[in-house]
């Protein structure tokens, strides 16, 4: 059973899409709010990487679709992983600690997970589940939508997510572009029962703090302060982003309840990154900040004019 996580190809290969199952989305969540599509199957057969839409939302040899939580607090809330189609559980693995790549032992890249076999040579795999959450056993018959476990942080991963892998006769298939063969942007029909949007980058979260927060605090979900005191050291707005690209503009703006601008900054992003955060703000004046409601707006802009995402957060300053 130790080998059931191995795959036989490193990029998507063409299949007879008409024989493929119609896949239910495998996580019980709201896209763009409690979960996000971050990375996709690699369609480049060489050492580079590209996703099904010709973008950089992949990495070399990536074989699955990554469905992530906002942060560790989002994982702790419990996002249920569900079977994408009817089938039989072929194998499971549990007992891998949640803690990401540093806690991974050799051969445990998928972390806690399971494999389900389906009709006509199809197979789905579910990786990085929460330790102790798997609710099925090898040999169980499952229906589409059946509960399998919870999104976790086990195995080779830098953030909590489900890696959903689809294979046909042992070969990796991209459910967004099942007939692609080292190509992308074909516009072909996906295998999802309900069409899924492709968002090429999103603002995961944003919030206020009395100083620039540590990245670890943002990733755990502990960085946002619902209120700060008038005399705290600074008024800082931060934003947590996935799939940002070189040349993107992150616009951060703080206003009071009346709409008067307190602070604004445009931050040019100079690297394509899977996840990042940026923060901006002002030191507290000698008289302190006037108590009341403050509003933070964050906008991710691409190619100078295209608004990729927009996020609003609110915070109260107390006397």
Brief overview:
With about 325 residues, the chain is mainly beta. It has two domains: about 15-175, Glucose Permease (Domain IIA) (Distorted Sandwich); about 200-319, Sandwich (Immunoglobulin-like), CATH 2.60.40.2550. The protein has helices spanning about 70-75, 215-220; strands spanning about 35-40, 65-70, 80, 85-95, 110-115, 120-130, 140, 145-150, 160-170, 170-175, 200-210, 225-230, 235-245, 250-255, 260-270, 275-285, 290-300, 305-319.
Helix and strand layout, with pairings?
Blueprint: E1 35-39, E2 65-69, H1 72-76, E3 80-82, E4 87-93, E5 112-117, E6 122-129, E7 141-142, E8 147-150, E9 161-168, E10 171-173, E11 202-209, H2 215-220, E12 227-229, E13 234-244, E14 249-256, E15 261-268, E16 273-283, E17 292-302, E18 306-318
Parallel strand pairs: 12-18
Antiparallel strand pairs: 1-2, 2-9, 3-8, 4-5, 4-7, 5-6, 6-9, 9-10, 11-13, 13-16, 14-15, 14-17, 17-18
Index terms:
about 325 residues; mainly beta; Glucose Permease (Domain IIA); Immunoglobulin-like; 2 domains; 8-stranded antiparallel sheet; 5-stranded mixed sheet; 2 helices; 18 strands; about 40% strand; elongated
Explain the overall architecture:
The protein has 319 residues and is mainly β. The protein has 2 domains: 17-173, Glucose Permease (Domain IIA), CATH 2.70.70; 202-318, Sandwich (Immunoglobulin-like). Helix content is 3%, strand content 39%. The chain is built from 2 helices and 18 strands. It has helices at 72-76, 215-220, and strands at residues 35-39, 65-69, 80-82, 87-93, 112-117, 122-129, 141-142, 147-150, 161-168, 171-173, 202-209, 227-229, 234-244, 249-256, 261-268, 273-283, 292-302, 306-318. The strands form 4 sheets. Strands 1, 2, 4, 5, 6, 7, 9 and 10 form an 8-stranded antiparallel beta sheet that branches. A hairpin with a 2-residue loop joins strand 9 and strand 10 (171-173). It is elongated, with a radius of gyration of 21 Å. The relative contact order is 0.16.
